[in-house]
# Entry
Amino acid sequence: MTYDERLSNVSVLGAAGKMGSGILLLTAIEMTDLSLLPENKDKVFVLNAIDISDAALKGLIEYVRTQTRKFAEKKIVWLREMYKDNPKLVHNGEIIDDYINKVVQTIRPTKRVESAYDSYLIFEAVNENPDLKVKLFKQIDENNPNEPWFFTNTSSVPIHYLNEQANLEGRIIGFHFYNPPAVQKLVELIAADKTLPEIVEFARNYAKKLKKFVVNSNDFAGFIGNGHFMRDALYGIQTAEKLMNEQNYSFPEAVYAVNKVTQDFMIRPMGIFQLIDYVGVDVCKYIMSVMNPYLEDEDLHSDLLDKLFERKILGGQNSDGSQKDGFFKYEKGRIAAIYDFDKNEYIDVNPVAEKIDAELGDLPEGHVAWKKIIRDKNKDEKLAAYFKNLEKMDTLGASLAKQYLKNSGAIGLKLVSDGVANNETDVNNVMLTGFFHAYGPINNFLNWEEIK
Amino acid sequence: MNKKIYLTAGYNTISMGSGRKEFNPKKERPGIEHYVKEAGRAVVDKIGVENIDETVISNFNSSQYNNQANLPGYAPFIDEKLRYKPSTRVEGACGSGGLALATSFKFLMSGISDVILTLGFEVQNVMKAVYGADVLAAAGWYKHRKEGHAHFFPGQFSDRAGVYFEKYGRDYARKAFARWYRNAIENARLCPTAQEYHNTNPDLEKTALTEPNPKVFVENLNVYDCSKVSDGASAIAIMTEEGLKKCGIDKKDTVEVVAFAQAVDDITQRPYEPTRLLTTEHAVKLAMERAGITVNQIGTVEAHDCFTIAGVMAVEAIGLADYGKGAQYVYEGKTARDGEVPFNTTGGLIGWGHPVGATGVHQAVTIWEQLTGNAGDAQIEIKPERPYGMTINMGGDDKTVTCVIYKRPE
# Structure
């Protein structure tokens, strides 16, 4: 079966979700582009968008329309070439409109999983629930005569586990997009020991056509991305708990302090608690619980996340992309209030910020905001100089940052020594491209030996 | 010229668009009314509205950009005292402003008016460039659009550049394009209304030598070879001696029109000789004949550099260099502000900006500023042996051309 044939009938499971909608968009565009090639003129390309809610499927098409326009505008030179034999479509605007319609017409929104019985390729982006994934894979595979290939977007469940439980005989691969898939360049590619080589080859081609940056991860729960993030998040929670115990900080003060250190002192795109909110408290809790049984020498679990989950303090995003309340309450994307665990209510961020900023101390000299540094041509030199200044300081903020950086680096090195990542570069690349960090966690900016 | 005609009280708004610090494509911006009012008002206030006999307005394609036609009605919007007075809109694509000048001269020579408010404008930043290309394509023949490039006009001039490369050498020509770009930006940095006024790039020629990428743009040009997408208006008062008296304007504050010439070519035809601007050549030659001057007497030129290649070809069309030698002339700095004949002293279409329908008027304003010593930081020295200024405004791919020659009044 050729690449084009494999993509002639595809299903996306969980197509209306945050990840599923992006995967659907990119796949619909790739399929439409194939359909425009002269050799595919008479072929039909079908993309089933399968999800459980009519309401979400309704919004999905509008999302695809808006996003496809942006893609079409960028490749107008190529599109005009593809449309050159159609005398009716003359202007860029007409061609772009037609192209968007073609992309949308490729998509068949449905609630019926049976639609996937005709597909050659199944993308799975349902909840991070191993049992649900196995159930769907089994059901489709038993009813689909095409011996379809399964691409799972799981960020934590080992691929060999899914392969064995669903009896897929190696017709599965981990193809982990980052959020949002339409924008983020990174794909973690995870082949299980039994994954068929032709699937790996196809996956590489497909990722290349989507202009994605591929990092191979080995088949360990959480892979590289969550392998780092979940441990980094747990360290953040533990640091906050320590501040409560040792410095007598209140819950909001501790959360604010750690968030500030991880964002500003460490020059990251967001603080660790904001990132947990962005991903979702529930998602983080769930991923930890999926990963934890596979870990022998550590306990990747947070009572705090369990308690917040029970109280329905969940974070995550609304369908319009705005942030839901979690550790923080957001107004126009900015932190406006902090959750007070004891009182079970949100309190104004400003008085907390005023007190804690003073206790953390000033940012080291040479500080450049994350937004600026990522565009700076002399990024590495500026970061090196900044971290040298940080190293010399012993304010509370600087000390916390140094310990955090050291721990983050140690997590990265452990991913390599545990065999999750093939090398240090892969770990750094995942954090740079999947999490938009300005520098990899494994680095020589500080003298790590001396940080206690 | 059957009578003496003078230009005075010129005014340019900022040329707004990418490059200006205050430009944010995501935020709402002022529309036609803002630019027309600002430029029109500035001239009216200097010459007195009661002295104005009629208005000539140039614009390329507000029908498609802004859903607005019937533009003569913007005259009384500038000042209500222009109600019930004549107003005429002219259109010749990017050459619209030149047509406004020529039309104003003819109205004055007809004896029907003595004072004309001449104003050009365009507001282009209302759509993304990919759709703007469709609107601009109307300056070519509509039956050529389908086979044209996504970026239609860059495609047309890329084709011309391709032939020029083949005939005279690619590296040689591209170096001249880079020098043209550098001159344009350096001049724009001296003019506060220029779109590239805020440009701080330390190595302009290196930037301009970026290899063209036909996958995302055209084959032989990069974006630095192109004029800007702009919102802006320019206005100037054009009048007879009688008009000067009425308005109380001293001749030292004016420039005099020595001669002008218009020329058009068949919109349905492709360039006969891609490496030459034949229509421009014709208009320039005729204007110089009418003025009774030679090319060696021209002190400064505002040329229509919609693309760097058009600038190089204009140098040849004027006769400053032989065919194929225009690139060398430019590369050697002879069109720079301290060169033999300074071109586009406030940045031209690449540096100052190209609010399409305003450009021809903007060129006249720049010459008026230079010849009257009002060009501020952008002022060049006008040498006595080269006292004449020239504007060349070109619509489409060398189709609708107006050339005007100016001097300081005796």
Summary: The two ends of chain B are 16 Å apart (CA to CA). The mean pLDDT of chain B is 97. Chain B touches chain A at residues 128, 130-131, 133-134, 137, 145-147, 149-151, 214-217 (CB under 8 Å).
